[in-house]
Amino acid sequence: MVKKIGIDGRLYSQTGVGVYIRNLLFYLQKMKLDDIFFYVYLTDKDYEKVSFSNKSFIKKRANYHWHTLDEQIGFLSNLNKDDLDLMHFTYFSFPAFYRKKFIATIHDLTLIYFKTGKASTKNPILYELKHNIFKYVLKTQINNAVKIITPSIAVKKQLVDNYGQDLSNKIMPIYEGVNHEIVKIKENTVLKNKFPGKFFIYVGNFYPHKNVESLIRAFSAIKENIQLILLGPDDFFLSRIRELIVNLKLEEKIIYFKTHSISDLVFFYKNAKALIHPSFSEGFGLPLLEAANFNLPIIGSDIPVFKEILNDQYLSFNPESIDDIKKKINEFILNKPEFDYLLILNKFSFEEMTKKTLECYLQIINAK
To answer: Residue 316 and residue 280: Cα distance in Å, rounded?
Structure first.
């Protein structure tokens, strides 16, 4: 009997969750799938550019932005019409009144612990309203999901700590891996003319929990002739970062560069001295694995999920202490440590993640 499984691909082109979705779909198409059709829900922007070689994959228009009323009404209506045997929500924002069988991937609980997004900088009453709606939607997803996938044991622990031990049996940590898109792309060597000197890199967005401001303040005290290149989207919070760089007169020392292609990113991973990741909170840490793939040393926060991924194969600092960040950067410059990433890379794989996710799908749809 033919089964229909839906996959929420609305964040296909985004960073972070988008990398997860793209790799899931890439490897899922390669697997043997008998009597299963996958309905992949995409925004109009992605619908036109995404194509599937596997005929079991069917594109569905779902131009409903996350965190909107349209999502709660329009997307819900679409899903109900498609009458799926199982739906996979790949992000916490979903139609809260969807009542058919679904699993959810919860990437982190950062929004529980930290104020992020534009609303956090505006009217506090509006922010509290939106935050309470977010908490309701997330709790509904957690309670109603048949299974919950997390990218790490650390996120599973956070969920259990926040929502109760009873959840433990339905939470399945499945590790992610190195983005398949970055493995096969050659570096953009043209950038060597623009960045001929020594540099560290930061890769990610500029939300407050990423702690980039502390990194900038720490780096302002580094005397070595070396630059810090900030690589990330031109998002809402970048203006604050740029303002801080100007105020500290660091325009020559700290540079923002918007990568236009994966080959740009490969250049930075292959030519940097180290990746610095100062985040207060993460659910996983894809840039860590990308850096490890290029044997790039990592200097990062001493937080549980980074320890889970890297063990002791990185130089850690207290993200709450600007002095400690500065101290560890100087320590790296004076005595560059060596790390062995082979065992780590063997442990993490998007292909293995997809196999385990498919097993989860099959277990649920075949259950009597």
So the answer is: 12
271 and 338 share a domain? Answer: yes
* pTM of the predicted protein model: 0.93
What strand order describes the sheet that includes 298-301? 254-257, 227-231, 199-203, 275-277, 298-301, 315-317
Query: Going by C-beta distance under 8 Å and a sequence separation of 6 or more, which residues neighbour residue 300?
Result: 275, 276, 277, 278, 279, 285, 288, 306, 310, 314, 315, 316, 317
Residues 289 and 331 in one domain: yes
Model pLDDT, residue 118? 54
Indicate if 136 and 194 belong to the same structural domain. no
Q: What is the pLDDT of residues 85-119, one digit of tens each?
A: 999 999 999 999 999 999 999 999 988 887 665 55
Residue 119 makes CB contacts below 8 A (sequence gap 6+) with: 126, 127, 130, 131
Region 304-326: mean pLDDT is 97
